[in-house]
Structure formats: structure tokens, C-alpha cells
Amino acid sequence: MDSEAEPLEVELQVVLDGRGLPVPDTYDAPPQTLQPVVLRETVCYVVLGVLLNERGEVLMMQEAKQDCYGKWYLPAGRMEANETIVEALKREVKEETGFECEPCTLLAVEERGPCWIRFTFLAEPTGGMLKAIQDGDAESLQARWWDHDSPLPLRGKDILPLIDLALRYRANPWHPVTLPQELPCTVVSQRVVVTFVNSRKDLWVLQSTVGNPHLPVTACDMTPTEVRSSMKVAIYRLIKQCILLPQVQLKTCGILGLQHLGKDAVVKCDGVCFNVLLSVTHANRCLCDTPPELHGGLFEWLRIGEGTLKSAILQRLSTLAVVPICS
Questions:
Q1: 65 within domain boundaries
Q2: Distance between CA atoms of 195 and 322, rounded to whole angstroms?
Q3: 89 within a domain of the structure (yes/no)
Q4: Strand extents, DSSP E, the chain
Q5: Residue 55 sits in the same domain as residue 131
Q6: b/e map 198-236, b = 16+ CB within 10 Å
Q7: What is the DSSP letter of 55?
Q8: Per residue in 95-131, is it b (16+ CB within 10 Å) or e — as a string?
Q9: H helices of the chain, where?
Q10: Which of 119, 190, 196, 264 shows a CA-CA span of 20 to 30 A to 276?
Q11: Would you write out the chain's pLDDT as a tens digit for each of its 327 residues?
Q12: Contact 282/248 with Cβ under 8 angstroms?
């Protein structure tokens, strides 16, 4: 990066590289209630692993829980206190299938309301042995490789699109390897890369001007009354603060990266920060070739000049080279 680059351009490069940035103590467009989240009390994180063998078969585990006894599912489970996201994935896969594993990349992030987030990874086995029926315990009855075609009683069909996603990604990866970065955060937050591209492929990115110029960072409202997609609601709240929404169309493209610590912090930090790519276009695309007018005086558009940074952002936008958010 050029030593004379704008502070925002430095942040953009870090985010595009999948790295993390310190989360500020204050947020842009925060919710009315902003309290640190506590794992398994105010927020639930679930990890899920999709492991494939050389034949394209997927690793499955047979449930031991009473409410779904004997059904089959991908190895998955809730994170425990003082775990990183990757540690939770490795533990769940080992307990339920007998295999040790390493994550290849984050495949998808799903959320249901403000308090439940599931992280799905493509992973590969690195050791261990397939859990046999005689090794069954409270975690699972056994594990097996499934061709995802033969009849198999599933606990839920929600895993089928995730298996398909993993197969397609392994055949033709459409986004760079994306893995959690171990940096602390106290709430569920989003660092937002808001872009505007005109017909000539000129590019602008929104920056907050509060303090040092930076990519806007907002946070989710974790109150029980907020039942909609908390991540997208938080982003909508931020954009509404500076752009007249009836005049534009917003598209949440997906996740460029994420950060979480969850352990060994001076202050307990169960939050997670997502770096989210967003595009803004005029509702009437024929009207203007410049970014939407801003109000409120807290944000401004920074035009990104020609170079590798601009090319990288345009490539991520044009091919949707991001991890999808499902809600």
C-alpha cells in the first residue's frame, strides 16, 4: 500500500485481505440498547462443518439426542465459553465423527433473529478414525460418509443447500479463503464497506468522519423484541442515518471477513465483528453518475483512484466474491 494512501484505503486493504481491525469503543449509528453479549446467555453461536472425501461424499453423524434420535446431520453444535470459533468447530467434529479437522474456509453465515448465528465451514479431516457404532456416546451414535443421494433419514433438510454450497466451492472457489481473525469485540457488530459504482466504473466508498476517517462500524440491537435479521437491520439503520433511502437501492453482498476472540482477553469478549460488503445504486439509475447525496455531516464519500485496490473491490462486487449471509 502507498505510504500516502488515505486512512480509509489502508483499512480497505486490510479488510479485503481477510484480516481484522480493532473495533472502536463507540459505534456509528448504534442501537438504543448496546450491552456486551454473553455466550449462551444473550447470544448463541453454532458451528457446522462440511467435510468431503475424494469421492465427493460428505461426512455425517447420527444423532444421539432424544428429540432426533437416529437421524443424520452434519457435525454441528453450540460454541462453549472460552473457545474460539475454530476451536469449537474442531471440537464438535471430533466429538461427533471421530475425525480431527482443519477449516478450509467459512462457507456461509446464517442468523435467526438477533441472538442465534451459525457459522458453516468447509473443512478437511487431518487425523482420527471414523466413529463406529460401538463408539457411540451422548455426542453421536456413529458417523459415516454419505453420497448425498442414497436414502438417509435427515434431522433437517436445511443442510442440503450447505452441502451443495461446499461441493460447488470446492469445484470452483468464488471467494478467497475466509477464516476468523482472533481480535476482541464485545457486541455483534458490522464494519460496513458501502460502495457506489457509476456507469464508467468510477468507485466511491463511504467513510465515517467522526474522529479519524474510518469504515463505518455499527452494532446489532440484541433486545428480544428485535425478531428480524439483526445484521441487516443494523446496516439499514446506519445507511438511513446518512442517505435518503427512498432514493437508493441497497444490496448486502456478503461477508469479506470476521473477527472474534472469546478467550484469553483482559475483558470477556463474546462479540463478533463482520466485515460486510454493500452496494448502493440510485433508484433511478438514469438520473445521476455521482454517489447519493449525504446528510447529517457524519459521513462522506471517498473516491478510490485507479490501482490495485479499486480493481480488487470492483472484482469482489462484480463476481460476488464474498461469503453469503442467510437469514
A1: yes
A2: 14
A3: yes
A4: 44-51, 58-62, 72-73, 76-78, 99-111, 116-128, 142-146, 188-197, 203-208, 217-219, 248-260, 272-282, 299-304, 325-326
A5: yes
A6: eeeebbbbbbbeeeebbbbbbbbbbeeebeebbbbbbbb
A7: T
A8: bbbbbebebbbbbbbbbeebbebbbbbbbebeeeeeb
A9: 7-16, 85-97, 160-171, 230-242, 308-319
A10: 264
A11: 555 668 899 999 999 999 999 998 889 988 888 888 999 888 999 999 999 999 999 999 999 999 999 999 999 999 999 999 999 999 999 999 999 999 999 999 999 866 899 999 999 999 999 999 999 999 999 999 999 999 999 999 999 999 999 999 999 999 999 999 999 999 999 999 999 999 999 999 999 999 899 999 999 887 765 555 588 889 999 999 999 878 889 999 999 999 999 886 666 789 999 999 999 999 876 668 899 999 989 999 999 999 999 999 999 999 999 999 987
A12: yes
247 near 292, Cβ under 8 Å? Answer: yes
Last residue of one domain, picked from the residues 126, 141, 171: 171
The values of phi and psi at residue 134, to 5°, are -70, -10
Q: Is 227 in a helix, a strand, or coil?
A: coil
The pTM of this model reads 0.94
In contact, 25 and 210? CB cutoff 8 Å: no
Question: What total number of domains does the chain contain?
Answer: 2
Domain CATH code at residue 253: 3.90.79
Task: Look at the alpha carbons of 286, 245, 311, 179 in this order and tell me if their dihedral is positive or negative.
Answer: negative
DSSP-assigned beta bridge partners for residue 62: 72, 142
Domain interval for residue 264: 7-39+178-326
In whole angstroms, give the CA distance from residue 107 to residue 177.
9
**Residue 2 forms part of a structural domain:** no
